[in-house]
Amino acid sequence: MSVLGQILARKVTEVAERRRALPDAELAARAKDAPALRGFEAALSPPGGPTRIIAEVKRASPSAGAIDATLDAPAQARRYAEAGAAAISVLTDGPGFGGSLDDLRAVRAAVETPLLRKDFVVDAYQLLEARAAGADAALLIVAALSEDGLRRLLDRCGELGLAALVEVHDELDADVALRSGARIIGVNNRNLKTMTVNLATSERILPLLPEGVKGVAESGIRTPDDARRLRRAGAVNLLVGEALVRAADPGALVRELCG
Ligand SMILES: O=C(O)c1ccccc1NCC(=O)[C@H](O)[C@H](O)COP(=O)(O)O
């Protein structure tokens, strides 16, 4: 089974366990009491706008293994926010990425910046969790969902006020995302079958997005040269994880990536 297939199978089990411990109605009551939403979509650059960074809190990954197992999520988020990151992505998957919903809650309390819950959403329950923990947006991965499933989750995001970053890996995914009404599309440069990254994926797909849709280049962006290369292909929003966590001065790298 592919890495993504294994993660998705685990997610189904994990969600069932959490639902037993906290049923939907109780979680929904918590989500209703969640603090005010911050504008994730508005924080991103429109086509042709200035470069904006979605900076990620990432302790580990299937491709890299441990990046920084002891990373202090709120302290890292503060570094990003102070450097002017437009939004912060918090990985909440435990086994693969060393993250948790507690990280999301801690980051929410530490910064005013809009937050993305970065996880593998297979069930609307995870959207309620995201809202209750203080996220302003959730990641939806086309390759992880049926087209109907994607539409249902997009609708649920709308009901909860969450923005949806819809992740695509190729032109077919992008068609599905657009047909489903995605307003923010992330092009992931990481091939989830081989785990290799290729910035040419963003260069190829971002220019195909229509004007009203905000595009994001995701993964494998390490240096200001990478940012400049993507910029030439029209990428204005860059989601960056590992390079920022490994950077001696993450704030300086956020600023340099903005050019
Ligand atoms: O990062 C991985 O190894 C990975 C493996 C399988 C599924 C998803 C994975 N990453 C999630 C992400 O989308 C990245 O964390 C994000 O785009 C930042 O990427 P990077 O800047 O290369 O850390």
Automatic annotation (TrEMBL):
Annotated ranges, domain Indole-3-glycerol phosphate synthase: 5-257
Family affiliation: Belongs to the TrpC family.
Catalyzed reactions per annotation: 1-(2-carboxyphenylamino)-1-deoxy-D-ribulose 5-phosphate + H(+) = (1S,2R)-1-C-(indol-3-yl)glycerol 3-phosphate + CO2 + H2O
Keywords associated with the record: Amino-acid biosynthesis, Aromatic amino acid biosynthesis, Decarboxylase, Lyase, Tryptophan biosynthesis
Protein species of origin: Anaeromyxobacter oryzae
HAMAP family assigned: IGPS_B
Pathway: Amino-acid biosynthesis; L-tryptophan biosynthesis; L-tryptophan from chorismate: step 4/5
Enzyme kind, highest EC tier: lyase
Full protein name: Indole-3-glycerol phosphate synthase
Cross-referenced Pfam families: IGPS (PF00218)
UniProt xrefs under PROSITE patterns: IGPS
Documented EC number(s): 4.1.1.48
Matches recorded under CDD domains: IGPS
